[in-house]
Amino acid sequence: MKDTGLTARRLVFLYVSSVLGAGILVVPGLTVQHAGSAAVALWVVLGIACIAIAALFADVSTHFPRASGIQEVVEAGTGRPLAIYSDVVLLVVYLVGNPAMGLASASYLAMITGAAALTTAPVQAAVAAGFMVVSVLASMLPTRVIGAVQAWSMRVAVVVILLASALALPRLEWENVTARDFPGTAGLVTAAGIAFYAYLGWENVSLLAGRVDDPQRAFRYAIRRAVPVVVVVYFVAAITFAALPPGGPALLVPALTAALPDAVRVPLVAVSLVAIVAATNAWVLGGASLFQHAATRLSPGWSTRDPRGLVPRGVLTVGYLVVLAGAGAGAFSMDHLLGWTSCLFLTVYGLAAYAFTRVRRRLTLAAATVLLLAAVMLLLERPVGLVLAIVTVIAVIAERYRHARTLHPDHPGRPDDRPERVRDDVPTRLPR
């Protein structure tokens, strides 16, 4: 077998680095503030649920190595209209999710400088807009440079978290983990929507199947090792935050370092700020690439007319500024943006699970779990999640009806109405 250089051990690193992004610096503290001590258990439950998401996209990687994204799987299993719908949802993901990281960066800057003016919503939104513009400009650097910066920044972030946690040990009061009041169902649902944001990224590695030796074995090996690492890291971050005295900053590193002298606190917070900016830049790059890919699918000559992707970056920038203007006006907060991003991703995950089920002609345990997780989370995350669930169900029903009318105008349809090319491209049985 040809050696491609992507071994099973390398896949473990890619999985962990894809999921442990800037969320580790932002999300654990927010979940504890919303759900109290229940947030610790919430991280474990969602981590176990994410095993199914990782397994689903490992299956996609193994049996769909030519796919260049979730949209390709959705198109193969359900048709072009739903693939376009998934494109639109993913674009909205970037428009909503990236400004959340911009707001987190603005909060970090306020903590570093200590300026009270930087804590107001309008000023934080303006500072976040500046961070987003810088990220858009930085996304025009060579991909190799961006990848190197991203990889090193996250390594540094992990070191900073470990160091800050060690320095915070004298302040930890473990009785706080169970002493916090439970805020009720609403707080738990909000925390779940925010926490799920941190578990996004399992789909990224599915694009590398064509470069992996023995993907059937490698992806299973990687999942068994990557999922526990991710779950444990987030669990430790959440329980450490819960053990801190209540009332401190919501972001992890500032909370851990709040009692330290400025000579120690400021450098640690500044380094974690750099990690968030680097992660935001990676998201911006992903959004621009997705926009370019979607536009090329609709108009094959698009990439020739705009080879540097200036138009998608311009559109994304305008979208970021509009979203941040809403945040500055007090219409919503960073918590809302994180929860909405989770809802949007769950919509796409559900579509991918449904499409892959139709491609494989059978419902796997991983796909069934992802569908159930998406349905429950979307129905609980009202009103945005409920609206997305209703729109998606209507879109799926409409697509099924369209297929039935196209393939059998005189009959109500047949169970196997997938595109003919899928039956030729994809095996009908899982390899042993």
From TrEMBL:
<feature type="transmembrane region" description="Helical">
    <location>
        <begin position="12"/>
        <end position="32"/>
    </location>
</feature>
<feature type="region of interest" description="Disordered">
    <location>
        <begin position="407"/>
        <end position="432"/>
    </location>
</feature>
<feature type="transmembrane region" description="Helical">
    <location>
        <begin position="121"/>
        <end position="140"/>
    </location>
</feature>
<keyword id="KW-1133">Transmembrane helix</keyword>
<feature type="transmembrane region" description="Helical">
    <location>
        <begin position="310"/>
        <end position="331"/>
    </location>
</feature>
<keyword id="KW-0812">Transmembrane</keyword>
<dbReference type="InterPro" id="IPR050367">
    <property type="entry name" value="APC_superfamily"/>
</dbReference>
<protein>
    <submittedName>
        <fullName>APC family permease</fullName>
    </submittedName>
</protein>
<keyword id="KW-1003">Cell membrane</keyword>
<feature type="transmembrane region" description="Helical">
    <location>
        <begin position="88"/>
        <end position="109"/>
    </location>
</feature>
<feature type="transmembrane region" description="Helical">
    <location>
        <begin position="223"/>
        <end position="244"/>
    </location>
</feature>
<feature type="transmembrane region" description="Helical">
    <location>
        <begin position="337"/>
        <end position="356"/>
    </location>
</feature>
<feature type="transmembrane region" description="Helical">
    <location>
        <begin position="38"/>
        <end position="58"/>
    </location>
</feature>
<keyword id="KW-0472">Membrane</keyword>
<dbReference type="Pfam" id="PF13520">
    <property type="entry name" value="AA_permease_2"/>
</dbReference>
<feature type="transmembrane region" description="Helical">
    <location>
        <begin position="386"/>
        <end position="402"/>
    </location>
</feature>
<feature type="transmembrane region" description="Helical">
    <location>
        <begin position="182"/>
        <end position="202"/>
    </location>
</feature>
<feature type="transmembrane region" description="Helical">
    <location>
        <begin position="152"/>
        <end position="170"/>
    </location>
</feature>
<feature type="transmembrane region" description="Helical">
    <location>
        <begin position="363"/>
        <end position="380"/>
    </location>
</feature>
<feature type="transmembrane region" description="Helical">
    <location>
        <begin position="264"/>
        <end position="290"/>
    </location>
</feature>
<dbReference type="InterPro" id="IPR002293">
    <property type="entry name" value="AA/rel_permease1"/>
</dbReference>
